[in-house]
Amino acid sequence: MSGDGEPGNWSPLDHAVLRQVLDGTPAGVGIYDPQLRYVYVNPALARMNGLPADAHVGRRITEVLPDLDDAGEEALRQVLSDGKSREVPSSGRTHAESEPGRRYWQGAYHRLDAADGTVLGLVGIMLEVSASRQHQQELERARERLAILDRAATFIGTTLEMDETCAELAGFLVPLLADIATVEVFPTERSTPDNRGVLRLRRAAMAALPNLREQVKAFGEPGEYVEYPSGTTIPRCLQSCSPVVQNLFDDDALGHGGSARERMAAFRSVGIHSALVVPLAARGEPIGTVTLVRCGESPGFTERDTETVQDVVRRAAIYLDNARRYTHEHGIALELQRALMSEPGSPHPSVEAAFRYQPAGSTALVGGDWYDTVRLSYGRTLLAMGDVMGHGVEASVDMSQYRSMLRFVAAADLPPHRILRRLDTLISETESGRPASCLLALVDPVRDMCTFSSAGHLPPAAIRPDGTVRIIDVPVGPPLGTGHGGYEAVSASCRPGDVLLLYTDGLVERRGEDIDASLDRLAGLRLHSDGDLGGLVDRILSLLVVEPADDDIAVLAARIVR
After folding, report:
1. Which of 330, 373, 336, 334 is nearest to 354 (CA)?
2. Rounded to whole angstroms, what are the CA distances from 19 to 13, 27, 124, 541?
3. Residues 558 and 383 sit within 8 Å (Cβ to Cβ)
4. Can you list the alpha helix ranges (DSSP code H) found in 487-532?
5. Exposed / middle / buried, residue 20 (Cβ in 10 Å: 0-12, 13-18, 19+)
6. What is the largest CA-CA distance in the chain?
């Protein structure tokens, strides 16, 4: 056959063996000319289309399958045009009586060229993806659930705050799957009823449609504790670890849900008719429950709704468990940090000191920032500011250990650079010791002199009586714990009225900003060095920390007095 498209001029299937192969395959095989008219149809494709093979030859695809989607035919034209083989999904209605309704195919198409490059047509091999409406509906439902889970992944779990994560979950469920949603969690890790058989939960979050928000307030507020008698819906859901569906429930069923009788009128006034309670659990441990409610003309909960909600809740439970574990550890570390930081040593009477510790935002783990003052002989005071690398309880424990080491080494009355050298050796010999930065300042009021030494820490600043701020250049050695040593000391004049400022990086550093620019911002302040020293530190914090800090902040201010 030539390229003129006449179907009777081309007979590529004269070979008996080739015909037997094509006729015997269970996949549908069709050969088309450049005008997409059938040249050959094997028995399997004839059965798919519901017409004899002879009824195909010479007819265009759209004549045989008038309901074929346009995308499928366009893809075949592209194969003819550029010669690139393609896998093409298509759908349409056929003449087959066995499966009414729309059918779906996956086809692989390849262009046929003559030896001189003339386009002869194309061959297609088709497999029916699903000839069942039920199967296709199941696929559509699966796609919908996956789409919902994809949306949930971007909406839920953006924070490590327990209540905020619960609020994200409730906010996601409304209005997508419910008119009202509540998330209730165990106030402690233990999840057993008390001796009265009453289970106590904390309502962490509530969400409702805008037109229901005022009415929903009558049911309670987030943060309240709710008690559920044994045998009611919430305890039953947790005990069975399976969802509980109540559609069109009456007052008896409503009361069995744990609601007080005097509140039933409020429930009925909102038009509540259906509820779905799903257990909230992660890693085999119960966290609480999620309750979805539908009102007014909203339909009751179906099995499909229940499956979708369970998928969302399972994913959210992982985020909530992470938030719960983080909150527990964060609380321990913060309390430990505050307890240790609240007891700095007493400086010499000739040195006035003020301290501030400000933890980072609630979504960051507590760090290992620390400060201390050590009273020495001859009226001298050693000021220390350090930062253990890392976060959490381990960093706080190491911080406490390093502070104790400092006090021990400082008692030997060594100059600051030799104190750092001893600390570096001790920490490097500790198997689990973390590296840490440290800045020491030895204040000597008798000589009006301060001696500094730094182990990887930011430089100190001096606030003069005229209000100017000067960054003191101190040679920076390696962090403590590396075992390399190499610390130097530098001295500067410190007169009565001068204020020394030691701090950790959270005070000045900003994400994406060069450290020199951060220090220039500190040096650009104009401050009054007289008056209350604690008020001065608060003033510095208010000027430099205008947004929630990414890291903890520790500040030590010291002033020489006569």
Report:
1. 373
2. 6, 14, 15, 87
3. yes
4. 515-523
5. exposed
6. 116
Which residue would you say has higher pLDDT here, 7 or 90?
90
CA 207 to CA 244: how far, in whole Å? 20
| DSSP type of residue 367 | E
Cβ atoms 247, 301 nearer than 8 A? yes
- Given a contact cutoff of 8 angstroms between Cβ atoms, the answer to whether 276 and 305 are in contact is yes
Mapping DSSP onto H, E and C, the string for 326-389 reads HHHHHHHHHHHHHHHHCCCCCCCCCEEEEEEEECCCCCCCCEEEEEEEEECCCCCEEEEEEEEE
pLDDT in tens, 301-321: 998 899 899 999 998 888 888
Q: Is the peptide bond before 175 cis (omega within 30 degrees of 0)?
A: yes
Structure tokens at 366: 């507590």
- Token digits for 170? 């409730």
CA nearest 495: which of 524, 468, 465?
Answer: 465
DSSP 8-class letter at 408 = H
Pair of tokens at residue 39: 């040249």
Q: Backbone phi, then psi, for 158, in 5-degree steps?
A: -85, -5
- Identify the burial level of 236 via C-beta atoms within 10 angstroms of its C-beta, where 0-12 means exposed, 13-18 middle and 19 or more buried: middle
Q: Please enumerate, as own/partner, the contacts of 538-547 that have beta carbons within 8 Å and a separation of 24 or more.
A: 538/356, 540/501, 540/507, 541/356, 541/358, 541/507, 544/507, 544/508, 545/358, 545/506, 545/507
Nearest to 374, CA basis, from 402, 352, 354, 345: 345
Amino acid symbol at 300: G
Tally of CB atoms within 10 A around 94: 23
189 pLDDT above the threshold of 70: no
In one-letter notation, the amino acid at residue 366 is: V
Q: Tens digit of pLDDT for each residue in 60-78? A: 888 888 777 666 678 888 9
533: closest CA among 504, 556, 554?
A: 556
Q: Per the confidence metrics, is the pTM higher than 0.85?
A: no
| Backbone torsions φ then ψ of 399, nearest 5 degrees | -55, -45
H or E stretch at 554: strand 553-560
* Span of 139-153, 207-221, 455-469 with lowest mean pLDDT: 139-153
Backbone angles phi, psi at 355, to 5 degrees: -130, 150
Cβ atoms of 488 and 417 closer than 8 Å? yes
pLDDT band at 153 (very low <50, low <70, confident <90, very high): confident
Tokens of 562: 């006569």
- Nearest 5°: the CA angle 77, 79, 81 is 70
Read off the DSSP letter of residue 467: S
